[in-house]
Amino acid sequence: MEQEYDTAKERAEINKRYKALVRASKSKSKSADQLIIRKAFDMALEAHSGARRKSGEPYIYHPIEVAQIVVDEIGLSTTSIVCALLHDVVEDTDVTLDDIDGIFGGTVARIIDGLTKISQVFDQTSSIQAENFRKMLLTLSDDVRVILIKLADRLHNMRTLGSMPAHKKRKIASETLFLYAPLAHRLGLYSIKSDLEDLGLKYTEPDVYDSIDGKLKKTKAVRTRFVNQFTLPIKRKLDNGGITYDVKGRTKSIFSIWNKMQKKGIPFEEVYDVFAIRVVITSEQNEEKADCWKAYSMVTDFYTPNPDRLRDWISTPKANGYESLHTTVMSPTGKWVEVQIRTKRMDDIAEKGFAAHWKYKGSGSESALDEWIRRIREMLENPDIDAVDFVDDFKLNLFAKEIFIFTPSGELKTLPSRSTTLDFAFEIHTQVGEKCIGARVNYKLVSLSHELKSGDQVDIITSKKQKAKEDWLNFVVTGKAKSKIKALLKEEKRTVAKQGETIFLRKLKSYKIQLSEDNQAGILTFYKQQNQLDLNFAIAKGLIDLTKLKKLSQENGVLQFDKPKKAEKSLKQLVTTVRGKADMLVLGENMDDIDYKLSPCCSPIPGDDVFGFITINEGIKIHRVTCPNAMQLMANYAYRIVQAKWTSQESISFLAGLTIKGIDDMGLVNEITRVISNQSKINMQSISFESVDGIFEGKIMLFVQDTEHLNTLTNKLKIIKGVHSIERIDSK
Q: Residue 632: how many CB atoms within 10 A of its CB?
């Protein structure tokens, strides 16, 4: 039965949302612009008429809300609002780019074109998602607004993800955490980055999210009281100093708290910087630096700072333009508190990133963003790079901390931390990188792989005889260096392959073999080569014996190869087979010819939430949804993910591991082994303990039937005196 909708109520809601958008946009647009926005809204309303989202609500809600985010949370104006309202019409409706060009002009049409999704062509070698992401980034060279609107689109999709099935939520959330949140971070959109991360965590780790969210709500009153007491003397001092300011306590995002818990292996209660104090001062642009240090002096008059925790991003802003002074001070209650000091202009840029840079044209930090975009373009210029490789290289530079390196002439270059001499050489110029044989760092001779530190002065040494080498890829970290080295190696491979091609054609002629399409394909399969370039290269290097072709018979000019005993299924065939059988793999049931294995990277056992990943050569690998590799697999290869669940496995045991930490005590090991041996249906494979200065760490490998048995055992072990923590081991 078709669901009935209250269309009158929906029309009122659409009108209400549109009016809210108009109110928000008025400060950023003239009356003539308001007419253009109205025209775009009318077009979107008509184009999406009758269409609904998965939640059942009218589709038009989505473009209006995306436009609202574009105005309120990114700070863009009329052109971007129009594009946000129309971002789905070309893809989902009969409206064409020509229609948009005719009504709104070329700029709007170009941005909409950039926002229109790429048709999903099945590709065995690269991920659809990765390829789309790469193509989306190509638009950086045209108009950065494409990326900004895309991020707004993704943010609204994440905010309304609740109506999707669980496996879809997980896929979209993983892609968001893997690609979109780091991109928002790099563009300086900190507020959007935090929202994307929190929402990503909400759908990938719902229990973790709910737990931290609950604890934050429970401790809110205590935090508010502490902030008020802590900031009181600071406010008095700032008032006396004649500084106009706004002081507020900012709770850190759930994701960043969880991240800290993971990295340090500590519970929520031990995360000391759950919140930060932010001092935002009003200052003239030419006085900003002095005023921030003045405010810093006033804060440290009352509270003792930790000298190791001072971060000066005012003197040297981050590559995305972020400027702020960060210090960590000791409160009277013995707690470390982070204090951020910045001006109103710096705060705008920190929250709204790129859009705020346009507002404050002429600020020195603008060039840093331009520089970053230039690097992206250079990476994208390499047409041969695989999409997934590109995404991995690109991601390396998204969240990377930065170091500042000086050229011999004193010019400052920004690079990701852990960059090497060779990264710096490629940063200067591709030819400098290709011919680099070493460098003088602070006048001392160093190798290509030498890791640079902030403040180093680097003079590159080159040689005309030097050529790019495969092992260079093992120690460069910048996306630019990696893509250039790969391009140089490919070019070198082509040159060598030319020699191989000459040998190949000469041999075929002497063996009276025609180079037909069938023969070419057969020869590639016979020598297990991916393409003709690889074959020619292998011939030139002497890795292939062409005399084997001489021994083959021919029928009507076609070479007769021995038929393989069992032809391997292509990835496409395997995906089709799996999808055709069922929407979900039921692990433990007879799956006929569908081969699946439990992945060793996360060791899933019955009871774990799992998914299947279709590999090229090893059938289907089963992973836990919390697997360290899950996010990357779901983001990059969503089309190869299949849902999976366990069936009853009474007679089968699975290997699982536990790490136990605590205070060493007499008889502790005996007590642990006693508890395990008393637990039915659990058998111990191995146990090892190490004790250093009274602290022990034990590793136990067990055969269990499912998560229920494992959790029961874990709870019994936790109550043993001296045991502090127990964690599941992710890999065998």
A: 19
